[in-house]
Description:
7-stranded parallel beta sheet
Amino acid sequence: MDQLLYKKRVLSSELSSDFKVSEFTIRRDLNELAKEGKLLKVHGGALATSQHLYSFKEDDILDHDKKLIIAQKALSLIENNDVLIIGGGTTNLELINILPPELNVTVFTYSLPIALRLSEHPKVDVHIFGGRIMKSAQIVMSMEVLMNISKIRADRCFLGASGIDVSSGVTEIDWDVSQLKQSIIEVSDTVVVLSTSEKIDTKHRFIVGGLEKINMLVTEYDPDDPIFIEYRKRGLQLL
């Protein structure tokens, strides 16, 4: 459901590979979710039933409570007059939803939902990278976007991740998204990855960057949880 909110379309074969279960299991779960009215089952996968750009309901967001905890932790890292790059995804949506109205920051983003939501904030100066719109993911992607990113310098970036593990670092399901995030990491003084706990110790097809490229990992867990022992040994800060 989290992928559907972000991509609007999922394939059974890709879900089977990503979650390391059989396609039969995926089809069964998609059928059950379709019966609950949460998605539209189609041949080979499923489609989101809602096409609203940014009016996500709390009940529709997977692990909403966890993502709210992560957003509240991440908010503590933002200072007045910061220049930020904020990626897409529902965890980042939670973050921008709780930005105080008096906070004065500049935000660059490639996410249409993030840009639209930030346009309602009284003091945030919001910039969206121009280029081709990937309708399925509601992001802007082109060589022009990568060039524009290379011309700025950000105090901090806040990025989601499809997976993160000690050996591969941050990984993504989509190649284009991995390229975007690589470019953002290169121009950011501090790289903050926001991730719910089920993505820890998982990896996907496309590498964004090793742990040495990341400054901080924010999850809903206590930073002293044993799951992070190897990450701390690699010098990663936990929040």
